[in-house]
């Protein structure tokens, strides 16, 4: 390692430390890249070099009886999922694949899933990626290898840097190895469907399922036109066969007051939830800007009514209404003003998931923070990366 | 006792009258404790071997009063130790002579219950159990259930990232808190997270939970509540040896079964708890598991059938199902009173570390050997499903040699947890108890990174400064 090239591809953590230390010494900025499938997520960056995890691959620990897996950051997610499936296990949080959303090829990596805290529909029952990520090894911007957490469920001693770095989009360090806790993959799945509910009715129906003891693992609502025709409300159960049959019946009874309940078999259920996880109902068209709203579910219908009143918006609800995917025309501020006003009013926040570099350079991609939180954010960035060389400005300007 | 506290700052001690006068201008008289007799009530927590009478005790009633007290202390350079109910087993709430205690006991209101959103907003001094009590009539509960849940506060739970018997399925505090209101040392009030599932920006909420009063004082929290299962049934499984029980735990999880709780007790713990609770625990076995399943009657039957089959492959001697709500309550009473019941038999220190579940049998064997080497008795009662060990080392508090041996045995056990791939803490935090063992788990670089993050919040080290990080090497960060 004598001079920096346009692509840095460490094969070991020690090499990554040396490369980052050298970049810091030379004042060179680095853009961290896994599979490159989510390159459009975050503010556009101007970095001197790409720092790729593609040579940091392989599962380093898998103990099915302890429900834990560790892998180097560049390991393809698909390889992890295949390995787990062979033992009847899974990543609990159902990591979503955004290749459809961003129109990218390549292979999503496990490190990026951790770095971006990517969770799918099952998050509503089993928590987000940040809840399953129990240990990390990372190289900070000083070129130091740091570990936090471990391989046991109750993992954190001292400050929880695992959670801090999960979802930090590589601005605090380069993950070299990540450890997740796992769950057994339920042997059976099915969904229940209700047709024709308006948003407010759907939110109430979805809330009722989550307030029941039946442990639904997906609750989504697609308004008119997003599933082809009438509004469609979906509730998923993943259980063993005996429990599945029982709970489908109980949920059918519970949802009766909201309308006729259809039962959807495993194959169609899987297809629906795959589409919802990948944002397929909105991502098919490459034109619109796409937002992701995180908000208290019981305010979601009102919030979306307010946004729809001022913008031509198409959207659907996941997480029983706690997550809204929203497509708007990409001109101007891509609706940022109206969307953020309504979502903050509802107690939530909005992230601009897809738009041109031009728009993402003009509009806050991540939710704007108040002065006190911004000061902490900047301080934490400096504590990991004093030279500001790792993914500079990926989340917030100057951080 | 071997854990050192920093030397008190003489300048602060000399300025005590001024400091109390300053606090007196911010709080009404009944919110400020100054007499020595009354301050003595705050001299320690559940790690009673260490006692220091604080400079004064502030008991603010609102977030704004907390902010005023912290801003004053920041200005005056006075250290602050936050205190919930004082049930910390790792000494997290033990004060120091040149610090004030900031107690949360008057911040004890449940502010809002939101059933459609399944959240509750509480002040930080609300007890853990009172959240569940406030929502149970509607069929909900707050999941983390530390044994001290009757007394311990949600603020303390957040500080220590507390767990409990049912965390195997429902997660620990950090998985069940959506937002916190925090007062920073300079008096700034900030919200991290809120009522939405994700928090914006960096996950500061995740950082705050488990930060042991080092980064700020939590005054309010939004917690998730969950619908209660249709029914729950604990079953007692008696084994000839601890090794059989440990192997059975690993086999159950390995078979893809996640019971809602899997609690382990060895022979010593069974005898102590049975004598206290009369729960019907089998006395003729070497170890026992309490495994709880949830759901409808048919679902529980189906899951139990699989668990019993696995238990038989591990030489189970006794299987006893709870047949009534009263029996279920007794079974859990026995488990949850384990610490108190042990205290009737002997003085003890309760250790808390986590190991990979595959190492349980080995760690139990080594625990027995280590304690025997020191000539001490040990009872093991712990959360087996997630490998969270709680060896109770029994000793005589009036015998200084015994005290030293017990403390040393405890440290040996914690190192053992790290050496088999686990960590120093499960759910009690580092506090002072494990502070000096941190270098056994972490490199200097790891610790320096944590301390640099700490310094973002409290560069002067005024917040609970004797805890978590070894006293030496702090400057290097």
Considering the chains and any ligands shown, give keywords for the structure.
heterodimer; A: 399 residues; alpha+beta; Uridine Diphospho-n-acetylenolpyruvylglucosamine Reductase, domain 3; Alpha-Beta Plaits; 3 domains; 5-stranded antiparallel beta sheet; 4-stranded antiparallel beta sheet; 15 helices; 18 strands; 33% helix; B: 477 residues; Uridine Diphospho-n-acetylenolpyruvylglucosamine Reductase, domain 2; 4 domains; 7-stranded antiparallel beta sheet; 17 helices; globular
Written account of the structure:
- Chain A has helices spanning 13-26, 77-86, 99-102, 110-115, 123-126, 129-132, 161-165, 199-210, 241-255, 266-277, 280-283, 300-310, 336-345, 357-362, 371-384; strands spanning 7-8, 30-33, 49-52, 59-63, 68-72, 89-90, 133-140, 145-149, 173-181, 183-184, 188-195, 218-222, 232-239, 261-264, 289-294, 314-318, 323-328, 349-354.
- Chain A has 399 residues and is an alpha+beta fold.
- Chain A has 3 domains: 1-185 and 369-399, Uridine Diphospho-n-acetylenolpyruvylglucosamine Reductase, domain 3, CATH 3.30.465; 188-277, ACT domain (Alpha-Beta Plaits, 2-Layer Sandwich), CATH 3.30.70.260; 280-362, Alpha-Beta Plaits, CATH 3.30.70.
- The longest helix of chain A has 15 residues, at 241-255.
- Chain A is globular, with a radius of gyration of 21 Å.
- Chain B folds into 4 domains: 10-103, Uridine Diphospho-n-acetylenolpyruvylglucosamine Reductase, domain 2 (2-Layer Sandwich), CATH 3.30.43.10; 110-227, Uridine Diphospho-n-acetylenolpyruvylglucosamine Reductase, domain 3, CATH 3.30.465.10; 232-338, Alpha-Beta Plaits, CATH 3.30.70.2190; 346-419, Alpha-Beta Plaits (2-Layer Sandwich).
- Chain B has 17 helices and 20 strands.
- In chain B, the strands form 5 sheets. A 7-stranded antiparallel beta sheet of chain B has the order 15-12-14-13-18-20-16, sandwiched between helices. Chain B has a 5-stranded antiparallel beta sheet with strand order 5-6-10-8-9.
- In chain B, a hairpin with a 5-residue loop joins strand 8 and strand 9 (189-193).
- The longest helix of chain B is centred in the last third of the chain and has 20 residues, at 400-419.
- The interface between A and B is large, with 80 and 88 residues.
